[in-house]
Amino acid sequence: MAGTFIRNRLLPRVAVGLSGGVDSSVAALLLLEQGYEVIGVHMQNWDTTDEAGASACPYTEDLRDAEAVSKQLGIPFHRVDFCRPYWTHVFTPFLEEYDKGLTPNPDILCNREIKFDRFQGFARDVVGTPWIATGHYARLRHFPSLGPSLPVGPLPSSTSEGGPRNPRACTGSHSSLPELCTGMDEAKDQSYFLSQVPTRAFQHVLFPLGHLRKGQVRDMAHAAGLCTAEKKESMGICFVGKRRMGAFLPEYLQPRAGTFVSVTTGEVLGTQEGALTLLTVGQGARIGGAEEKWFVCGKDMEAGRIYVAPGTDHPALYCDWLLVAKEDFNWIGQAPWEMGKKHEDRSQPTDRLPSTASPSVAFRCEYRARYRQPLAGCQVSTSSDHPGMLRVDFDVPQRGVALSQTLALYAGERCLGGGAIVEVGPSYYAQGKRLPERRLTWAVSGGKRCVAEARGGEESPRA
């Protein structure tokens, strides 16, 4: 396969993050076909030498496959060790949050701290280019920083500064303001995981797969004879691999036992080792001898209590608002109040958001509080009632919202940014409110997380 690609000298050199999987392999292939000078880079972010059961991590296999793909494509190959910054800036904060009973997302931290920070530095300093590419299913659009609108129609097919030719990947010059958009494959869209990456980090980024579906990517890999064409997807903590959290985390922290308490009666239902640390809101609780399923609806870390509710759709599992810290929220592009003309019709989400100098502002958009959750409507506001906070009010009740999860906001196909949830509103049960027929729920079935809109109201009796 080497030597079959024609180099376009007008296009830049690009460092492609090769994970050893099919997605990054095809990303490199597509860039070669378009005429880029492609350099393969494999990032090692986890060292298994200090880990019991280290054979569970497929790093050696991933490195071998990444190098094999580079040879197939005829491109230079680098391996870079980011184990120390990964431990310091991703894994340690992840452990600290879990130890507090919170629900952090290490994949989001990994993207912000490693792939779109340290990797970019390596590309610039070692590979000799500011441009990087990954196999993420997302898209970037570049528009001048002046101008209020957020167009979502057809995009031009070329750039003015030697950027990518793919109209779905990126348009405009690399000096323009990038906007993050959802991938065309809704089932694989990864914009949620990118929502806390700073705007500046996207200035020289390419997402070659953003306009493709997973099936198309595998077909391309087969057609090119890539050795990763049939490789299964890696699921688990970013760069750590597939892990059973209950067995993996105790190697690095001391999980605390929790006492299960019924939120409806106050009855103590049992205890479980590690549950206070490892369980999160919305998850099922294993209570011995229980005839029905119980789900976590709250935790009291000081008292060591885990409050549980009977049934997957209990009102204690639902809330209708949350808070994120305004200062810590990562706006991709401009913050809504810095752009556009105020949108008066609040009945539908919009791609044109308000501009105002007022300290109190409200606008409508859509949100996602976990990966693969369908986008749902909400209103975002700032006011003196919650100083320094963004309050997000859901159009319909949301199930299983947990502290430290990432909330991502959207306007149409554009991801506006993301931030960690710092406070959750009272549950419908605590308020004595009846759940409406329309509400957003999720559950785990057969090891896979499923999301659906539930129907059927339920009373919220108070004990």
Description of the structure:
- The protein has 463 residues and is of the alpha+beta class.
- It folds into three domains: 13-224, HUPs (Rossmann fold); 255-310, SH3 type barrels (Roll); 315-454, Elongation Factor Tu (Ef-tu), domain 3.
- The protein is built from eight helices and 21 strands.
- The chain has helices spanning 22-34, 59-73, 83-99, 106-127, 214-224, 245-248, 275-278, 428-431, and strands spanning 13-17, 37-44, 77-81, 132-133, 138-143, 177-182, 205-206, 258-262, 268-272, 284-285, 294-300, 305-310, 318-325, 330-331, 361-368, 376-382, 389-399, 406-411, 414-424, 439-445, 448-454.
- The strands form four sheets. Strands 13-17-16-15-18-19 form a six-stranded antiparallel barrel. It has a five-stranded parallel β-sheet with strand order 3-2-1-4-7. It has a five-stranded mixed β-sheet with strand order 9-8-12-11-10.
- Helix 1 runs parallel beside helix 2 (59-73) and helix 3 packs antiparallel against helix 4.
- It is globular, with a radius of gyration of 23 Å.
- The model is unreliable at 145-175, 340-358, 444-452 and 454-463 (pLDDT under 50).
- Its EC number is 2.8.1.14.
- Residues 360-421 form the tRNA-specific 2-thiouridylase MnmA-like C-terminal domain.
- Belongs to the MnmA/TRMU family.
Descriptive terms for the model:
Elongation Factor Tu (Ef-tu), domain 3; six-stranded antiparallel barrel; five-stranded parallel sheet; alpha+beta; 463 residues; disordered C terminus; Rossmann fold; 3 domains; 27% strand; SH3 type barrels; single chain; MnmA-like_central
